[in-house]
Write a sequence for this structure.
């Protein structure tokens, strides 16, 4: 569910007509709904009611400061994967004890930053990382709380580029080796084992792979406790999918996910942490673009937009589907059209959709890409020297630009000229 609906023939973000935002900021742009962001956070929070828990927003999916502040004020913790994300979380007012640090390649400066600024736990992904963390913590006179990310070797049945829980993936340590690795952790100074971490992938549309992973985690919890470790926390990762193609997929709801967690892990008395990203931010955002041209090809029509792969890379990178809808609601019974929807970038990969049957739009019309809040703006670039597109946050009948579009001069001024070229 989201808060982008047609009202009086015009697509709205909550109570704000999209056309009004477009008139003020120009296209293309991203727009996010406060009501959808907070609703999705509360769905997860309520799904785990009855268990001690913390919902940590995976901020790599959408990391604008205004969005982080919105979720932090609703009570979310944050899952960070870099020093930059850690700094963003702190800047948004998230206390260190609500931040978990994930990622396979944490560097020494990142460890130092989090140990100094405060951290709930590091989700450690290798013995080499554990050894370095021990050294850094000892040097700073701190103790690093850790979980070890285990790789349960389950097939998440998702796109290969976002599956992380098979033994062939770079993530975590093989679950069969977990007891040895925890024994090693217990022997290291400056490190305190607090739990287990698992994250098997993204955009999962079934509960079964999660349940298979969590059952392995339950068994491991008991084995590790028998070995004398304190396992008080289970970090279950993120990954619940969203219905990008509304007509086609119905992923499980957070309530069903929460019920499955209680069933597989509820008896262990652990605090549960989850790290949803996409399900909180995905349907909370649209990317809005203008039609620059409709071009007749040899055997098809191209819809050429002013947005491109540098603004939203998911179709090019993951073959992802985004529903593309007109901002002005089509009249009932109007004939649809079929387009290849493309951007202006000089790459054939700059294609948002092929042979897409959608409303018949024309030059100058506005279109909106649905479910673009997650892995949209955060993955954008200035390829082809196209300045990063602005982000807008709506709250009821108010809206604000939360990241302005840089001017060409601002974009150019980030480069510096070495003295020998002056
Ligand atoms: C990407 C990621 C998430 C979030 O995944 P979503 O599919 O956006 O929910 C959570 N945890 C870790 C460790 C991740 O890498």
């Amino acid at each position: 569910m989201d808060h982008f609906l047609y009202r009086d023939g015009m697509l709205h973000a909550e109570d704000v007509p999209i056309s009004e935002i477009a008139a003020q900021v120009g296209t293309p742009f991203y727009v996010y709904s406060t009501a959808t962001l907070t609703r999705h956070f509360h769905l997860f929070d309520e799904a785990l009611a009855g268990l001690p828990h913390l919902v940590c927003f995976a901020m790599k999916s959408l990391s604008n400061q205004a969005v982080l502040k919105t979720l932090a004020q609703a009570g979310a913790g944050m899952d960070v994967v870099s020093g930059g994300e850690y700094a963003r979380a702190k800047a948004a007012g998230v206390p260190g004890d609500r931040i978990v640090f994930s990622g396979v390649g944490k560097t020494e400066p990142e460890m130092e930053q989090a140990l100094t600024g405060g951290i709930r736990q590091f989700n450690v992904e290798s013995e080499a990382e554990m050894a370095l963390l021990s050294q850094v913590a000892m040097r700073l006179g701190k103790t690093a709380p850790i979980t070890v990310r285990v790789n349960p070797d389950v097939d998440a049945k998702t796109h290969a580029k976002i599956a992380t829980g098979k033994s062939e993936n770079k993530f975590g340590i093989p679950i069969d080796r977990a007891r040895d690795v925890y024994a090693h952790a217990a022997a290291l100074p400056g490190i305190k084992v607090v739990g287990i971490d698992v994250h098997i992938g993204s955009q999962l549309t079934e509960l079964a792979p999660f349940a298979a992973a969590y059952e392995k985690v339950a068994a491991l919890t008991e084995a590790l406790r028998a070995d004398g470790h304190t396992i008080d926390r289970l970090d279950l990762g993120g990954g619940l999918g969203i219905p990008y193609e509304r007509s086609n997929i119905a992923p499980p709801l957070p309530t069903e996910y929460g019920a499955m967690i209680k069933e597989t892990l509820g008896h262990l008395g652990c605090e549960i942490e989850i790290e949803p990203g996409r399900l909180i931010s995905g349907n909370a955002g649209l990317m809005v673009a203008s039609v620059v041209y409709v071009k007749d090809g040899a055997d098809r029509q191209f819809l050429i937009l002013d947005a491109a792969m540098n603004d939203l890379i998911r179709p090019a990178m993951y073959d992802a589907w985004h529903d593309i809808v007109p901002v002005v609601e089509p009249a009932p019974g109007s004939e649809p059209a079929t387009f290849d929807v493309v951007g202006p970038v000089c790459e054939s990969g700059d294609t948002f959709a092929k042979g897409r049957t959608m409303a018949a739009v024309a030059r100058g019309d506005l279109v909106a890409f649905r479910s673009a809040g997650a892995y949209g703006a955060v993955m954008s670039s200035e390829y082809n020297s196209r300045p990063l597109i602005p982000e807008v946050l709506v709250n009821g009948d108010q809206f604000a630009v939360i990241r302005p579009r840089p001017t060409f001069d601002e974009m150019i001024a980030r480069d510096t000229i070495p003295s020998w070229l002056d």
Notes: The chain has two domains: 4-31+283-413, 34-281.
